[in-house]
Amino acid sequence: SLFRGRLLTRLIAHLGPRGANVVQALLFGALHGPYAFAVLAAFGWGLGRARLAGAGLGALVAVHAAHNALI
Question: Is the pTM for the entire model greater than 0.85?
Answer without folding.
Answer: yes
